[in-house]
Every structure is written in C-alpha cells, then in structure tokens.
Amino acid sequence: MIAANMRKGRLGNPTITPFVTYVGYITGVIWASPDDGCSTAGSNLGQMTFVVIGHLKENTSRLHHAAGYLVAEALREAGPCSK
C-alpha cells in the first residue's frame, strides 16, 4: 500500500488516515524484524514514518521492491549505525 500510494503521488502531504496506516505498517515491520538497535534507537514512530516517506520519495525507482524491505532499508540507512 505504501509503495502503491507513492506511485500515485499520495505521499506529498500525508493526511491523518494515510499517515496512521503508514505508522501501523511500519510498526508491523519493526515488530517482525530482528532489531540490532541500529534502525530504531532513539526514534519514535512519527519520526520513523517521516524517514520512510522521505526514503520512498527519494528512491522512486525502487518502488517495485517489497514494501517491508523498503521500510527496513529506510530505517537501517537512517539509523545510528550507518553513520
């Protein structure tokens, strides 16, 4: 859903309903993924959601990949261990 909405240009100015959907999806990815502390340390869900939205906007050529992979990739790249 996130990637499909990105392709349709719906992430430019998120409203409450889509934003809550993104937060829920990102929460699911975080819970389902092993966490080494590198992707979520020191962040709240709102911050992580904006990180993922920004990552999707900057990487539109990758939207054919699975949404869960893209979420994990965005959080990993923005996390403290990547710096």
Structure, described:
The structure is a single chain. The chain has 83 residues and is mainly α. The chain has one domain (2-82). The chain has helices at residues 2-7, 16-32, 45-58, 67-78. Helix 2 (16-32) packs across helix 3 (45-58) and helix 3 (45-58) crosses helix 4. It is globular. The protein starts with a helix and ends in a 5-residue tail after the last helix. The model has no long low-confidence stretch (mean pLDDT 77).
Which terms would index this structure?
83 residues, mainly alpha, 0% strand
Number of helices: 4
Got a strand count?
0
Mean pLDDT: 77
Number of domains: 1
Distance between the amino and carboxyl termini: 30 Å
Tell me the series of helices and strands, N- to C-terminal: HHHH
Question: What is the global morphology?
Answer: globular
Helical/strand content category: mainly alpha
Please describe the biggest sheet, giving its number of strands, its sense, and whether it closes into a barrel. none
Low-pLDDT ranges: none
